[in-house]
Amino acid sequence: MNPAQRAVLFAAAADARDRAYAPYSRFAVGAAILTASGEVYTGCNVESASYPLVCCAERVAIYKAISDGHRSIVAVVVVTDTSPPAAPCGGCRQVIHEFGADAVVICANPAGDMRDSTMAELLPMGFGRADLPDRA
Ligand code: THU
């Protein structure tokens, strides 16, 4: 990912965060992902009065990309209004791993603080297709 793509992803994730539906937690999250073919997909967290049905911002973005036919993620930007910026939850790390085991994950906040991590750092020994007999 080049600096221009990083700037585009950050702006897209911050913009998506403004559309978060988080009336229960009041914790707005925005995400943007870059696919291997160069498309950008965004997501925000979507909560429900039935609390467990929440979908995290990262998963919304990833599911949008997958449903459009993309299968490979090279970068993820997550924006939260926290300092330091918050990292993706464990469930989202597993979903990122499914489609981007080598992706860079950038945790950011609206002030522009950014922290880069690799998926190997965020999810060591992640479970994947190769762990399922006969499905690798
Ligand atoms: N949330 C995300 O959108 N992504 C994460 O990685 C962590 C948590 C959302 C879920 C919920 O709407 C709110 O943040 C508080 O947990």
Would you kindly provide a written description of the structure presented here, covering whatever features stand out?
The longest helix is centred in the first third of the chain and has 15 residues, at 3-17. The chain is an alpha+beta fold and 136 residues long. The model has no long low-confidence stretch (mean pLDDT 97). Strands 2-1-3-4-5 form a 5-stranded mixed β-sheet. It has helices at residues 3-17, 57-67, 90-100, 119-122; strands at 29-35, 40-44, 73-80, 104-108, 114-118. The chain has a single domain (3-131), classed as Cytidine Deaminase, domain 2 (3-Layer(aba) Sandwich). It has 4 helices and 5 strands.
In total, the number of domains comes to 1
At the fold tier of CATH, the topology name is Cytidine Deaminase, domain 2
Proportion of beta-strand residues = 15-25%
- Architecture (CATH level 2) name: 3-Layer(aba) Sandwich
Give me the Rg, rounded. Answer: 14 Å
Indicate the percent of residues in helices. Answer: 25-40%
Oligomer type? single chain
Number of strands: 5
Strand order of the largest sheet: 2-1-3-4-5
The set of bound ligands, ions and cofactors reads:
tetrahydrodeoxyuridine
Tell me the major beta sheet.
5 strands, mixed
User: What are the low-pLDDT stretches, counting only 5+ consecutive residues below 50?
Assistant: none
Query: Can you tell me the overall shape?
Result: globular
CATH superfamily: Cytidine Deaminase, domain 2
Average predicted local confidence, pLDDT: 97
Total helix count?
A: 4
